[in-house]
Amino acid sequence: MKNIVVLISGSGSNLQAIIDACQSGAINGTIRAVFSNVSDAYGLTRAQQAGIATEVAEPKGFADRTAYDIALADRIDHYQPDLIVLAGYMRILSPAFVNRYSGKLLNIHPSLLPKYPGLHTHSQALANGDQEHGTTVHFVTEELDGGPIILQAKIPLSASDTEADIIGRVQVEEHRIYPLVVSWFVNGRLAMREGKAWMDDRVLPAQGYT
Ligand code: GAR
User: Residues with Cβ within 6 A of ligand 1?
Assistant: First the structure.
């Protein structure tokens, strides 16, 4: 059974999808701990309700981003993670952190990368009159939202859509694809090799999600 550590900053609906998939056996892994940089993040409550250890790591008091990230990683390492999942974790990670966990660090980002890295993805898609929008699961590298793409899910946009509409529709897709990708990783069917996402042949039919 692989050890998973999840990092959050907010509601934790993606965390919940991964908790549910671990409990159902769809993910052959155990979430050993959930870390949040925000002390009142609702995702912490979700973790506690599932009997998962939680830790709050607030950034104040650290000299800089790297110092915070090294202290965070030292705490994470107590749980001997095979995989670290960023699930709505809203802090930029330093190279020291990213390189320490190279190849075992996943993120979900609410856009069809490489479109709209960073914040305010939904409002940008609407403002630009895009016909489609979506979400991307990728390996994390030093480039913000720029690591190798693993899986995307698309939603159609219409002129009457509001930001709230599309946040909800994107999250429905996120809750489908993130547990799926985590299951591939823990089953050894997905890895980062030579800077690219490698998947074995058995997962390719699931690319029909995109
Ligand atoms: C998700 O939609 C995720 O894609 C996004 O935050 C939301 C967290 O929701 N992540 C980012 O924007 C990262 N740059 P959740 O806390 O309910 O899972």
Answer: 8, 10-14, 43, 87-88, 108-110, 135, 171, 174
CB 22 within 8 A of CB 34: no
Binding-site residue positions for (6R)-10-formyltetrahydrofolate: 65, 90-93, 107
Domain range for 193: 2-203
The ipTM, to two decimals, is: 0.99
β-partners of residue 190 are 199
Please enumerate in sequence order all residues whose Cβ is within 8 A of that of 72, keeping only pairs 6 or more positions apart, or say none: 35, 57, 97
Count: domains in the chain: 1
Numbered residues of the known binding site: 12-14, 65, 90-93, 107
pLDDT digits (tens, 9 = 90+) for 109-159: 999 999 999 999 999 999 999 999 999 999 999 999 999 999 999 999 999
Known catalytic residue at 175: no
Cα–Cα distance measured from residue 174 to residue 145, given in angstroms and rounded to the nearest whole number: 16
> Separation of 101 CA from ligand 1 center, angstroms?
20
Q: Is residue 188 part of a domain?
A: yes
Q: Classify residue 208: in a domain, yes or no.
A: no
